[in-house]
Amino acid sequence: MQRPMPADATGGVAPLPSGAAVLDAEAFVRPLIDNARQPVVALLRRWLGVPQGTDLTVRDLAPVADPTLRLAVAIGGPPPFPLVVTDATHTPALWRGTHLAVAHSGAGVAADRPLLAALTGRLESARTAGMEAELVRTARAWREVARVPPGEWLTFSADAALLRITFRCSQDCDFCWQDRDWRAPDDATVDGWIEAIGAARSRELTLSGGEPTLHPRLGHWIARARQLGLVAGIQTNAIRLARPDVLAALVEAGLQFVSISHHTANAADSDRLTRAPGTFAKTEAGIAACLAAGLHVNLNAVVDRRTLPGLPAHAEALVERFGAPAAPGQLSVSYSQPSEAWDAVVRADQVPPLDAVHAPLLRALQTLAAAGIAARADGPCGFPPCVLRGAPQGGPEPTPALAVHREGRAFGAVCGGCLQRAACIGVRRAWLEQHGERGLVPFL
Ligand code: SF4
């Protein structure tokens, strides 16, 4: 069974759209961030007494991981008059309230003493504890939205889109690059994005997370994607898909494919990796249920030091457990490198050198190919060609690597003379920094 092609409105199979637009994730996310910033600008305008018609811009100065509130405010201009609004403990402060302090940033404009005195007077006369607390609250809400990299909410290739609808999850893998408290786009935003993806004549939409099956509107979005002519699927841990009512509702909505995380053959090892005891058995039950329901199933394994030695046995287990229930072409397997953004301490322990990856990964790919299961490790999150030398790569070509996938990748000095250099996505920087060029063998 091949992965389904998009159906047209009459239910027939439509040809691949020509000239499908490649959408810009940044352009999709920008209005969301601007909307979240507006209440901050409005409050500052009111509080500082800046009239409409006079520019007031605000930037968040604090690094993502820094809980301190630190806003750069620029009023009027040119040059704009610069202020810094920060937590009440900030010193030195031009003005200090219960929750906030305001300082003249001194950047670019000499201190205008009469203006500073006027601002201080306005702050004091306009100040209420409620207004200060409101500014802190809206600034933090804005940061919650702005700190999620646009490419984490949605990514687009020429004909496929991936959209993350929640960052909640029923597992807590230590190699996950997301923060579980990242703010997900609101429902109306997801509605609008799906309409735009349909209008752009994308071929395929993957709804992901976090764990998308935890979102109550998942079925609605799958149904809408199908109405728009998109092939619809999800990235999931499949825990909830083991429940017949949940899976039946999603299939009824139009679900066509699932990409399921499955990293090791051993339940105890898997539950340790996912930090969710007892969930491996549910994931495997979910996989079996998806195969029985006729969905296309891709199983993805993350390769790190813990999963690497067991890759051949993992491949054998996949053949044994799921090879027979799957119809021809219904099951595929992919391998990926963990993102660089995972816990730095865990990463330092768990990044394997690439020369150690080659042999076990090759054996796993060969085992799956011999069983007729399409498997690859060269996707946008996968491995460079030199690590996969001699390995079979089955199934459709992976989606092209986008800027979001190339960030954090680098090349070694030996790559300069490699014939695969133009086609290669490179190696994760963490691998290079930790192990140097071990395992990079240029094609000459
Ligand atoms: S360019 Fe470098 S990383 Fe890519 S295949 Fe060649 S040697 Fe390997």
Detailed description of the structure:
With 444 residues, the protein is of the alpha/beta class. The chain folds into three domains: 1-20 and 164-279, TIM Barrel (Alpha-Beta Barrel), CATH 3.20.20; 27-146, no CATH class; 303-444, no CATH class. The chain is built from 14 helices and 15 strands. It has helices spanning 25-48, 113-126, 129-146, 150-153, 187-199, 218-227, 244-253, 267-274, 279-292, 311-323, 344-350, 354-370, 403-406, 429-435, and strands spanning 56-60, 70-75, 81-87, 95-96, 100-104, 154-156, 160-164, 204-208, 231-236, 257-261, 296-302, 331-336, 374-376, 409-410, 427-428. The strands form three sheets. An eight-stranded mixed beta sheet has the order 6-7-8-9-10-11-12-13. A five-stranded antiparallel beta sheet has the order 1-2-3-5-4. Strands 14-15 form a two-stranded antiparallel ribbon. α6 runs parallel beside α7 and α10 (311-323) packs parallel to α12. The longest helix has 24 residues, at 25-48. It is elongated, with a radius of gyration of 26 Å. The chain binds iron/sulfur cluster. The site of iron/sulfur cluster has 16 residues, from loops.
